[in-house]
Specification:
By secondary structure, the protein is of the alpha/beta class. The strands form 4 sheets. Strands 1, 2, 3, 4, 5, 21, 22 and 23 form an 8-stranded mixed β-sheet that branches. Strands 7-8-9-10-12-11 form a 6-stranded mixed β-sheet, with helices on both faces. A 5-stranded parallel β-sheet has the order 16-17-18-19-20. The chain starts with 8 loop residues before the first helix and ends with a helix.
């Protein structure tokens, strides 16, 4: 009779693995994805052959044979057909409701996103849009356009009320600068807004004027925002719902499964919830109401959980304006600004230092995640001072305050943000859209290389998010990816070679890291067992192509919790999986594994 040997720890581990596999094999998947490159964003298992999903969550990942053990009679099998699947993109910063303005207003963007290259062309686009949208104009009582940019107009100036009077003298015309921080209206619009020579510039705002003191139609900063709010108020509930629906559909088209409304009002929250009740909200939306509107609303409504795909995630504060419009608050004069500016002009402060300190202190005291729009070095100086004061008063904690944009920063400011636990959400797309403009006019060639300094962050081991700030730009995820990696400007110049990052880093800045930014890293941002089945399918593997062609990748399918929310024509092929020679059926695999375990014990 043979002597019984003690079971080795390796054998026990083998048995435990097999028993676990037997248990998992009893769980049947709703869908199995396979047949292409699957990038997980997890460093320990960066790629897998297949993913099984049940009840909207990831059930299993790994090699094809193991994952197919979860196939049942009702399991749908999704053949990627050689294409790439990644976690769904998480919006690090955007304005998904206002994004409907981009979708529904006259498109005044320059190439490649539009056709406007001069003021005559802008007027023609608005006239054509008015003819094509007469019912909308009649309902809103105005003509609306979005996306003009003096940096891309041959005249290199803002349109004026006289220019827009060529579109209409009967109804207000209102157009929004691509930054979202400047607007222009016609003579009728100035009357509608009650603005004349006696009107006083508000704090943090400018009403541009003609030589006789009359407004010329251009409204900057806090002179523009009330006008935009009044414009949106004209839409009514149905119009606002249409904006929100169009925005969420646009985000899904570019692979986003979590969107952000980065500067909202309590009414915006209600609109999104109503959109969800109507069955039209297909992705998650994290909402950050403007703390200057009704900050007491935020701590009452804030939650880490989504209700009907909507959650109030924190509050928003805006310190300054846009660098391309020369309204970002700098710590030095602009390099060569285009327009009428006083000597030594450094931009606009939308809020006083006292107000900034108060808002940040209030957020810390009320456990509200605060996201702060800060573009220029002068704005960062104010934000850092407020964060340091609040931290000294309330102590260290996992609050994850977010820097939004941070276009112009000094290295010492990056060090301060790291010390204070700030999550930077940067805007590398500026290198494409306005890199040449920054080099030639805003900061000059020496400082332009350091806009959106992602390289500095990685040198310090910091993680970050990269965003589109739509409707400032289209929420084009592949343009975001391309700009973060290549930093190519419209002219082809590389704006800051040392600030470039590799493709995987850029992808994490669109998935796993912004999930962390939103306190959602346990449920989103990577393909890992237990996380939500949020995926995007691309035409090719972004890590396997020439980085200079990243912007040519196509988003083919967007999947939210195993439900398809966007699909290009002919992108989907569902097949019944037929194991080929060499594949193992579940029972065969278990039997072979048990045999090996028994032999190990003997």
């Amino acid at each position: 009779m043979p002597t019984k040997s003690r079971i080795s720890s390796a054998a026990l581990a083998t048995i435990f693995s097999i028993v676990s596999t037997m248990s998992l094999a009893q769980e049947i998947a709703d869908t199995i994805y396979f047949g292409g490159e699957i990038l997980t964003m997890e460093d320990d298992v960066p790629r897998v052959e297949a993913v099984a999903v049940a009840d909207g969550k990831i059930l299993a990942i790994g090699d094809l044979a193991a994952v197919m053990q979860h196939q049942g009679e009702a399991t749908k099998v999704f053949d990627l057909d050689g294409r790439a699947m990644l976690p769904g993109f998480v919006d690090s910063h955007g304005h998904v409701v206002l994004g409907g303005l981009q979708a529904l207003a006259g498109n005044l963007l320059a190439p490649p996103d539009g056709d406007v290259q001069d003021i005559a062309g802008l007027i023609d686009v608005l006239k054509t849009w008015t003819e094509d949208n007469q019912a909308a104009v009649a309902q809103a009582g105005m003509i609306v356009g979005f996306g003009y940019d003096p940096a891309q107009l041959s005249e290199q100036r803002h349109p004026t009320r006289q220019d827009l009077d060529q579109v209409s003298t009967e109804v207000p015309v209102y157009i929004v600068h691509q930054s979202g921080h400047i607007g222009v209206t016609n003579t009728k619009g100035l009357e509608w807004l009650g603005l004349d020579a006696a009107s006083v510039d508000p704090q943090g705002g400018v009403i541009q004027r003609e030589d006789n003191g009359d407004p010329n139609g251009v409204l900057q900063g806090n002179a523009h925002f009330p006008a935009l709010s009044r414009l949106l108020g004209q839409l009514g509930p149905e119009g606002f719902l249409a904006f929100a629906k169009a925005g969420t559909q646009l985000w899904a088209r570019y692979g986003y499964t979590t969107a952000q409304e980065g500067r909202a009002s309590p009414d915006t929250v209600d609109v999104l919830k109503e959109l969800s009740r109507q069955g039209h909200l297909k992705l998650d939306v994290a909402v950050y109401p403007d703390l200057t509107i009704d900050r007491d609303f935020v701590p009452q409504a804030q939650s880490r959980n989504y209700e009907a795909r909507v959650r109030v995630a924190g509050g928003k504060l805006t310190i300054d304006g846009s660098p391309q419009g020369f309204t970002a608050l700098r710590d030095r004069p602009y390099y060569d600004p285009v327009g009428e500016f006083a000597p030594g002009y450094v931009g606009l402060a939308y809020e006083t230092m006292e107000r900034i300190v108060d808002m940040v202190d209030w957020a810390f005291a009320n456990d509200v995640q605060i996201i702060v729009h800060s573009n220029g070095e002068g704005a960062s100086d104010r934000l850092i001072a407020a964060l340091e004061a609040a931290t000294l008063k309330h102590g260290q904690a996992d609050r994850r305050p977010v820097l939004i944009h941070g276009q112009f920063m000094r290295p010492d400011q990056v060090d301060a943000y790291q010390r204070l636990g700030v999550f930077p959400s940067l805007f590398p797309m500026h290198t494409f859209y306005w890199g040449d403009w920054h080099r030639d006019h805003t900061v000059g060639p020496a400082r332009a290389d350091d806009i959106s300094p992602t390289g500095w962050l990685r040198q310090r081991g910091m993680i970050f998010g990269s965003h589109h700030d739509a409707p400032v730009a289209f929420p084009d995820s592949m343009r975001v990816l391309d700009a973060t990696v290549t930093r190519r400007s419209r002219s082809g110049d590389i704006i800051g070679p040392d600030q470039r990052v590799d493709v995987m880093t850029a992808l994490k800045a669109m998935t796993l890291w912004p999930a962390y930014q939103h306190f959602e890293e346990d449920s989103k941002g990577s393909i890992r067992i237990g996380k939500l089945a949020d995926f995007v399918i691309l035409s090719e593997d972004p890590t396997a192509i020439d980085p200079e062609t990243l912007d040519q990748l196509d988003v083919l399918v967007t999947i939210k919790e195993d439900e398809m929310i966007y699909e290009t024509d002919g992108a989907v092929q569902k097949t019944e999986y037929q194991p080929e020679l060499g594949d193992h059926h579940a029972l065969e695999a278990l039997q072979n594994g048990m045999y090996r375990a028994v032999k190990a014990i003997e």
